[in-house]
Specification:
This protein has 8 helices and 15 strands. The chain has an 8-stranded antiparallel beta sheet. Helix 6 runs antiparallel to helix 7. The structure holds adenosine-5'-diphosphate and magnesium ion.
Length: 306
């Protein structure tokens, strides 16, 4: 009997969700796919900065007033986000949104010099206080805003993988935009995952044979506009409140999507040298970086054998 593969796509969380999985039973497979989309919608409703009633919006409105009790799920994810801030000396910082919210990539709006000077000092992950016992969050500085755009999609993919696994699926690929997780292989063969060419539409810079892994890519071509010859995109350097411009694309390979999502954003901000140094210091993490000249760089674990 030939293998039964099932595929589906949906637009959720402002991105495209792709699910591909195998099961001998059609009903089980279709049910699993349905659950994936339901899970993505649930997480979007919880973490979207654009939905006024999301828990994230509630935090942004209330956590500067007094400690706010939040769900375990958001508490744990924010805790993980802070871990990546510590690891990168603040390159990854969810309070980037204190300035990041002043950009509008569709309307080509950047913050004014005045807005920038008034809000830049509100970017500091150390102003986030989590109380483990009470599961509360508190911002010690008024005007602090957080956004989980650099880690939430990875979390959603991990959560969806866990769900299909519980339904008896052993081989699957789930992706949310640039975050992909692969469970198992493709019946003895690898999956082929392309890293987008940062400057050529619909072209791949490289295609990787992968199984049982997660891969996330952060690029300066995802959400951007060009004004006066300057590319303004959605990955923000906490020190300047401006886009990070040393690299065009960073792909991270690792054991789960929450980690690879956060690290692709982190390494993008750190740049080639500091980014590769961080990657080398972590176990089970590899990177493919495309720099500003279009040059590709591979971390030590990915370099072809000589
Ligand atoms: P996407 O898959 O949306 O392109 P990335 O993984 O490349 O996401 O991360 C970009 C997102 O990360 C931005 O849209 C923003 O929400 C968030 N972000 C931007 N700058 C930072 C930062 N310094 N620290 C943490 N998150 C950030
Ligand atoms: Mg990311």
């Amino acid at each position: 009997m030939s293998a039964e593969w099932f595929k589906a796509d949906r637009a959720i969380m402002g991105t495209s969700i792709h699910v591909e999985l195998w099961h001998s039973d059609k009903t089980t497979a279709e049910n699993a796919i349905k659950h994936v989309f339901t899970e993505m919608r649930r997480i979007d409703a919880l973490m979207s900065p654009f939905k006024k009633e999301s828990e994230l919006s509630l935090i942004n409105h209330q956590a500067t007033k007094q400690p706010l009790k939040i769900s375990n799920e958001l508490f744990n994810l924010i805790q993980q986000a802070l871990k990546f801030s510590e690891l990168s000396n603040g390159a990854f910082d969810i309070t980037f949104a204190s300035v990041g919210r002043l950009y509008d990539y569709r309307k080509k709006i950047t913050p004014t010099a005045k807005e920038l000077s008034e809000n830049l000092n509100k970017i500091n992950y150390k102003n986030i206080r989590l109380n483990k016992k009470n599961k509360t969050i508190f911002f010690t500085r008024a005007g602090t805003r957080i956004d989980l755009g650099g880690i939430a999609k990875g979390h959603a993919v991990d959560s969806a993988i866990r769900i299909v696994q519980q339904l008896g699926i052993k081989q699957a690929m789930i992706s949310a935009g640039g975050d992909t997780r692969i469970m198992g292989d493709k019946n003895g063969r690898p999956w082929y995952v392309g890293i987008r060419h940062p400057r050529k539409k619909n072209a791949s810079a490289v295609i990787l044979p992968l199984s049982q892994t997660a891969i996330s890519t952060s690029g300066d071509y995802e959400r951007f506009f060009i004004k006066n010859n300057v590319r303004h995109h959605h990955i923000i350097k906490p020190g300047t409140g401006d886009s990070a411009r040393e690299l065009r694309s960073v792909s991270i390979l690792g054991p789960n999507s929450t980690t690879t999502d956060a690290l692709s954003t982190t390494v993008f901000i750190l740049g080639l040298e500091a980014g590769m140094k961080l990657v080398a210091s972590l176990t089970d993490i590899e990177a493919i970086i495309i720099d500003n000249n279009g040059q590709m760089h591979y971390s030590t674990g990915l370099q072809p054998a000589k």
